[in-house]
């Protein structure tokens, strides 16, 4: 029965309608039984919960931001990428939803099994390639007869772009994306059976004045080992996890045994570019450091101490005289 609570006036009205014959109790029972039956399509098996879909959305929103930064640097033009939708559907339906001739990149993501498909609308792919070749980002659509040079440029561009997925997925699994195939006809890519569930992440992308879609298809077999990591409970555990005393001790031990460069600065000076170009063997450069003044000792690139030069046996040495105040934020 429904969980709705009726008021006393509604109960009285219902009893009155039943007693007068305006409503039939048998019809009410029949309707209640019919409401319990839900249509289930086994071809569209829902293997991911809403919570897991939300987690995937968050992950790929970060992926979209990383791609925006990457393509902006590579193409040197206005780029905007955002997640449009995240859906689960049969693989056959995904293949039918994309153009018959398009740009398809296939990746492996070890240690996970299976392959991921990155489908790029030809208009977007050609606009990107035009920018790489020095154009204004204009688009044409002749994907059915790509030349070897065009194929090589597109492969290189999207192979490096997909490396950003490693950073986006770092919160749930450490992967190493490898591009394994480049195709233009989706009918040649039967990676899973037609009825297998896949996650399709659709990204809106704008390259200059050209807009289009990038679709990423992730089969269920790829995500199956890490599905527990997609729950909100896992995300909260990872964000609130504190290091144990043993981990802190190990970290401190590794830090205390790290190698650091210690350098004593004999002095510095400045000369013109003209004088620099005229330097020759035997020339002397005068430094701004007095002979009896202490030297600055640097740890890494940070000035930390004052010292004086000398010798220990036959080796050059530096004796620490004082701590340089203001050497770091703590003044140590």
UniProtKB/TrEMBL annotation:
Flagellar motor switch protein FliN-like C-terminal domain boundaries: 254-324
Keyword Membrane: yes
Xref: CDD domains: FliM
GO cellular component: bacterial-type flagellum basal body; plasma membrane
UniProt subcellular location: Bacterial flagellum basal body; Cell membrane
Keyword Cell cycle assigned: no
UniProt-recorded Gene Ontology molecular function terms: cytoskeletal motor activity
Family matches, as SUPFAM superfamilies: CheC-like (SSF103039), Surface presentation of antigens (SPOA) (SSF101801)
Biological process terms in GO annotation: bacterial-type flagellum-dependent swarming motility; positive chemotaxis
Membrane topology reported for the UniProt record: Peripheral membrane protein
Keywords, in A-Z order: Bacterial flagellum, Cell membrane, Cell projection, Chemotaxis, Cilium, Flagellar rotation, Flagellum, Membrane
InterPro entries recorded: CheC-like_sf (IPR028976), Flag_FliM (IPR001689), FliN-like_C (IPR001543), SpoA-like_sf (IPR036429)
Family: Belongs to the FliM family.
Name under which the protein is recorded: Flagellar motor switch protein FliM
Source organism of the structure: Peribacillus asahii
Highest classification ranks of the organism: Bacteria, Bacillati, Bacillota, Bacilli, Bacillales
Gene: fliM
